[in-house]
Amino acid sequence: MKRVRYTKYTGDLASEIDLEDLLQALSDYFLDSGYYDPDTRFQDFDQTLEDLREALRRALQDSYFFDKDLREQLDQLAAQGKLDELIDKLIERMEQANYISSSQPWGDPEQARRAPGEIGQPDDQKHIDARFEITDKSLDFLGFKTLRDLLGSLGKSSYGRHDTRHWATGIEASGASQRYQFGDMLNLDTTTTLTSAIVREGVGLPLNLEYGDLHVHQCEYQSSCATVVMLDCSHSMILYGEDRFTPAKRVALALSHLIRTQYPGDSLSLVLFHDSAEEMPVSHLARVKVGPWHTNTREGLRVAQRVLARQRKDMKQIVMITDGKPSALTLPDGRVYKNPYGLDPLVVSETLEEVARCKRSNVMINTFMLASDYDLVQFVHKVSAMCRGKAYFTTPETLGQYLLMDYMQRKSKTIH
After folding, report:
1. pLDDT tens, 233-250?
2. Half-sphere exposure at residue 391, Cβ-oriented, CA atoms within 13 angstroms
């Protein structure tokens, strides 16, 4: 008779560590904005696999991150000199789970850590310099975690779509039926359709249906919205003793996850503005750092309007996150005029003219200001008054609450 011998399962520590917990512990490293803080765990790290190993080593050394049993096992591995082996297995798991993607195969970890000058150094150096990128799956997870934390602090558990007072034909019936018109979704109201035919012809077989007998269900018409997040990445976003850029990136990721999962008809685009401005895919947001120095708000508005012009949505809005005064202007010949003191009359007048163009295009601007200078407050209020938008004077800690509440309140209100 065949026998099966069972032994005690000792397990593999690399497989016991939850990758999502590990990813959240590394979120500061993945979303680094270039802010220098001597107390920050992840500082001056590049996007290389060797730097990722060092970031993982620091994350594993955080006592608050793991329970007592796991902490003891990690301490034992560190004492035995096997922590590097665990880190390499974790990197391999993260790559297999599609949380990161490396630009080159990273091969034998022991060879990759060999000191320069030893045999095989050219290949080893290639592994040391091998770079990696976080994937859309990682960004989606970080956006979900941020969104959940923000909604949890708001006490919100559910959210709907942009409701309007109009009726449309669709899948979810929420009103009386109507006669079918060309172009309507053919969600047929069978009872009303047959009743109309019977009233016209009487009870009998076969029952002939005519075009006028067709009735379809009505549902509430739900509007779609195109949103451009205008993110200030001038150097003031990491000056004055705090990092304002990383919280802004987290909020943009959370908003992206909210729109993709709850409002599939909406669209979200990202525009960065500094000395100039450019559109940036939301999937590249984690790699964005601050710079150059100045704040070209007008150019950011121009790029945002070009992005919105491509969108065929009922509502269009710009969400501007900034902390500085407009201090730069792109001249007609392409040169950039700069005034680091801010609120230069030429820069302000041209910026307000661009705001007026947004108003004429029915584009609303909501401004989330991370500063409270008196002159800047007056400028922001003027922008909001011109384009029917709102101005929020907030902090990096409360930015996400204000922004998400504003977005979700617009969805719950009736659009005229």
Report:
1. 998 888 777 888 888 888
2. 18
Task: Domain ranges for the chain, please list them.
Answer: 13-134, 142-160+224-412, 169-222
249 contacts 288 by C-beta, under 8 angstroms:
yes
pLDDT at 26 over 90: no
Residues 6+ apart with CB under 8 A from 93: 14, 15, 19
Q: Which ranges constitute the DSSP H helices of 61-107?
A: 68-80, 83-96
194: Cα within 13 Å, side-chain hemisphere: 8
Write out the two tokens for 402. Answer: 């204000």
Topology of the domain covering 142-160+224-412: Rossmann fold (3.40.50)
List the one residue out of 310, 271, 276 whose CA is nearest residue 293: 276
Give the pTM.
0.68
Q: State the average pLDDT over residues 385-399.
A: 86
Write down the pLDDT at residue 164.
46
Is residue 273 within 8 A of residue 235, CB to CB? The reply is no
